[in-house]
Design brief:
Number of helices: 11
Radius of gyration: 19 Å
Distance between the termini: 44 Å
Order of helices and strands: HHEHEHEHEHHEHEHEHEH
Shape: globular
Structural class: alpha/beta
CATH class: Alpha Beta
CATH architecture: Alpha-Beta Barrel
Largest sheet: 8 strands, parallel
Strand order of the largest sheet: 7-6-5-4-3-2-1-8
Strand content: 5-15%
Helix content: 40-55%
């Protein structure tokens, strides 16, 4: 299919960075902190994407996803566990009986450098293993060459291969270089059928940042105004503290509104964020911080 990129306004770099910086000055009142911590946990995609991942490590991660802190049953479970395709069946079995989704990376993650039929078949096989969500990476080489038609049609093919699974499209914003490019890639992904757009694989620096995420949130807002279709957002990589996650939530609320303050519309891609949130939760309960040694790494 021939795709024509619609007219997209130029991003004002100074204004975007100034507005993003303003969220770093926001604070959450004590009475609201518990609700914010609860929401962050319920929005987290607990992730392990390492070459040394084993079935045992994935089962341990799934146990933590179900019960983030065994001594406190009030702490909710996370939104999803994100793993490599070969670990989907392990995670699916470990999470049986819960509402936690199994997400899996696909399409030659993290580079995206493989033949289209191979990447498409990987999506199909991963969904067949039980994945509820597919996190795919766009063809950055095609995008940076101005071949938007290829980028669009590949996402369309992956969306079709997903069947009932949701498709989260990773832009790898650290390789796109400018906010204008991020905005273009966001619109292409949404036009092609993405259920979510996502900043990063977590394998490239910089990963998620407040300004980049703001550009993507504004693209989602404009897409919604134009089409009436709500697209989700997932910043991933580099979000390690509850304080920073609160800033993202403030930005989401003020840019998109309360409808996006829900795990079905916004996720954090994180591996270390959860432990800091748990430490903050314990601080709310006891008035004291616990050492990080009291919380499992996986």
């Amino acid at each position: 299919m021939e795709y024509r990129l619609p007219s997209i306004p130029t991003v004002d770099q100074v204004q975007v960075e100034a507005r993003a910086a303003s969220f770093q000055k926001r604070s959450i009142k004590k009475s609201s902190k518990r609700a914010a911590l609860d929401l962050i946990i319920r929005m987290t995609d607990l992730t392990t994407l390492e070459g040394m991942d084993t079935p045992g490590k994935v089962r341990m991660l799934c146990q933590k996803a179900r019960t983030p802190h065994v001594e406190n049953p009030d702490i909710p479970s996370v939104a999803a566990v994100c793993v490599y395709p070969t670990m989907v069946s392990i995670a699916k079995e470990a999470l049986k009986g819960t509402s936690i989704h199994v997400a899996a990376v696909a399409t030659a993650f993290p580079s995206g450098q493989s033949f289209l039929p191979i990447r498409t078949e990987e999506v199909r096989q991963t969904v067949a293993q039980g994945a509820d969500e597919i996190d795919m990476v766009i063809n950055r080489g095609a995008f940076l060459s101005g071949d938007y038609n290829t980028v669009y049609n590949e996402i369309v093919a992956f969306k079709e291969a997903c069947g009932p699974a949701h498709l989260k499209v990773i832009l790898e914003t650290g390789e796109l270089h400018t906010y204008d490019q991020v905005r273009k890639a966001s619109h292409i992904a949404m036009d092609a059928g993405a259920d979510f757009i996502k900043t990063s694989t977590g394998k490239v620096s910089p990963a998620a940042t407040l300004p980049v995420t703001l550009v993507m949130l504004e693209a989602i807002r404009d897409h919604y105004k134009k089409t009436g279709i709500k697209i989700g957002m997932k910043p991933a990589g580099g979000i390690r503290t509850a304080k920073l996650a609160w800033q993202y939530l403030c930005m989401v609320k003020e840019t998109l509104g309360d409808d996006w303050l829900d795990p079905s519309m916004f996720r954090f891609g994180a591996s270390s964020l959860l432990n800091d949130v748990l430490m903050q939760w314990q601080r709310q309960d006891t008035g004291r911080y616990q050492s990080s040694h009291y919380f499992s790494l996986d």
